[in-house]
Amino acid sequence: MNAMAPVDPSHQAKRDLARLAADRDTLGTSALARMAEHLRADDASADDAIEKWGKRIGRGLGAVFFVFLAGSLILKAFNWY
């Protein structure tokens, strides 16, 4: 007979909470941090200032355009214009 040892629920809960704390990805902070890093163009080469500013301008304009499109969609969906 293969009997498993009883699992202490409090020990298992503490282990699960520790794993969740280590793996969690808080939506507000990490998403905003990734977006800011993306808009800063940290992936561009440091020795080429034109490339870095070009990426910053392009990504900034893309973000503005996205906000404009999302706003116009919301306005159109609720017949506010």
Blueprint of the fold:
Blueprint: H1 9-23, H2 27-39, H3 49-77
Structure description:
The chain is mainly α and 81 residues long. It has a domain of 53 residues. The mean pLDDT is 83.
Key phrases:
70% helix; 81 residues; mainly alpha
Note the overall shape: flat
Relative helix content: over 70%
Beta fraction: under 5%
Largest sheet: none
Decide which structural class fits the backbone.
Answer: mainly alpha
In a nutshell, what does this entry contain?
With 81 residues, the protein is an all-alpha fold.
